Amino acid sequence: MVDILKKLERLIKWAIFMVFSVMIVAVVVQVFARTFMSQPPLWTEEVSRLTLMYILGLGVGASVLTGDLVNVDLALMIMPKPVRRFCELFSAALVSLFGFILIPGAWEFTKLGTMQTSPSLGLQMQYVFASMLFFAVLLGVFGLVKFLEILFGIPETELTPHTPTKV
Amino acid sequence: MGITILFTTFILCLIIGVPVAICLGISSAAYLVFYADIPLVVFPQKIFAGVDTFVLLCIPGFILAGNLMNGGGITDRIIRFASAGVGWIRGGLGLTNVAGSMLFAGISGTAVAEAASIGAVMIPGMKKEGYPVSFAAAITAAASTVGPIIPPSVPMIIVGALSGVSVGRMFMAGAIPGLLLGLGMMVVCYVLAVKNNYPRQAWQGWKELWHSFLGAFWALMLTALIVGGMLSGTVTPTETAVLACVYAFVVGVYLYKGITFSDVPKIVIDSAITSAALLALVGIANVFGWIMANEEIPQTIAKAMLSVSTNKYLIILLINVLLLIVGMFMETIAALIILFPPLLAVATGVGIDPVHFATFAVLNLMIGLTTPPVGVCLFVCANIAKVPLSSVIRQIFPFLTGNIFVLLLVSFIPQLSLWLPNLIFGASR
């Protein structure tokens, strides 16, 4: 099970890296074209916004495990250990539940995209709206992973060692 | 009834430690399902609409640029330069800490990243030189609040996305308050250093100052690129953020050689995950904000505040007190997203310029990063220093007082935030 999750995580990270790289290339092309060409391409802004949605959709699940999705642990700190553990378990379960209950709505939203195309790329919007489906599914799955990690006492470093950068 | 469901669920989730973004999501979902009977398809639609904004591309851009520069080893270079400049004054390492944070602020748009980076180098260094370690942790935490005030600034990008105020204008509005904040902390540090007879370093000479400047030159040029790009008007803030990534990559890999090609994917992925968490907060808060607007909560808050007084200065004071209290207990970005729209309505209602309001609101909430009991920068620095939080809290009070004094100056003297953006971009509307 852990092996499958690790493979899934590697795949998602690879996809995130590709999406981020595409975003950088699109914006650099936009600046270059506007500065040096008479007519800059129209697709660059659309591509960069599409990649932003996929950074959100693909990255949010992993952020549950890394601690980037911040919580306020003031009350937790003063709770007795068993109560704290229960709250942490319940909290992870709620994250997962929230992700899973969004899936039907995200699926409906994705289907709405079949009737629309993006103005400059001509891309069917379902491929863009599908970022929200990834958002819901990965939040549900990684919330569940977090729940199982706490339940079975799996060390946090087993998946995604990472130092969060908060604001 | 609807409002009760919304806020009770939100507070309960917050207490048991659910991530803030998910607290907003669950409470909104509870409202939609149990009260409004609205299908949940509206949820992904609203999240999508909240994030699908070109200006929010700045967030991953500036986070990646900051992480690339940090990975490239700029912290040591910036601290060496700051030390050569101010280390010879009484309390020199404390001043170096603040100056280093101010320089770092021009590269990073976040306070916690700044506290972690500067703290990792400065706290052990100050301890070695004989400073009380809790003082070292306190000054690092206090100085890190400059990060999101001096441009670039992730909170100001979010404010720009929420209010439609130009991000470039917001960045410029933060410049003078950021410098004032830094200078204020330097004054406090100097007074404490004289009082407690903290050590000073020997003057290292103009040669060291010049060499350390050359060492930090390419890092400092990133600030010049960011500010210059926006001032020139040739690139948007989003484009500046992405160009900053390219620049940071070249500096980190080829000039400073602090990172290799193989390090880059991890830095990119970490930055994307951090950005995704922030974007999730923005997107889900958009649903929460939509419900609040439907329930006319912003108008109710505005009415309640304006019923107390319509005096502009009293309203500024009330807003500041409210934000300081909220900042003590709540995660800053979430507080910003939830409270900014209703308070903006109050502020504009009494004739406060939106850019001015946004500047003191962000400054106020950033001070909240160092106020007990929930001050993330305090936790980070106490953790690095390995001292009890209570000892850092005691030491941070003089700096907090100084920061609140600067906050009051910025709040009551609009020109401190408006003069520079108006000079560069012209008066707004």
Textual characterization of the structure:
The complex is a heterodimer of chains A (167) and B (429). Chain A is mostly helical and 167 residues long. In chain A, 74% of the residues lie in helices and 0% in strands. Chain A has 5 helices and no strands. In chain A, helix 1 runs antiparallel to helix 2 and helix 2 runs parallel beside helix 5 (125-152). The radius of gyration of chain A is 19 Å and the shape is elongated. Chain A starts with a helix and ends in a 15-residue tail after the last helix. Residues 157-167 of chain A have low confidence and may be disordered. The model of chain B has no long low-confidence stretch (mean pLDDT 90). Chain B has 429 residues and is an all-alpha fold. In chain B, helix 4 packs parallel to helix 12 and helix 4 (58-71) packs antiparallel against helix 13 (264-294). Chain B is 79% helix and 0% strand. At the A-B interface, helix 1, helix 2, helix 3, helix 4 and helix 5 of A face helix 1, helix 2, helix 3, helix 4 and helix 7 of B.
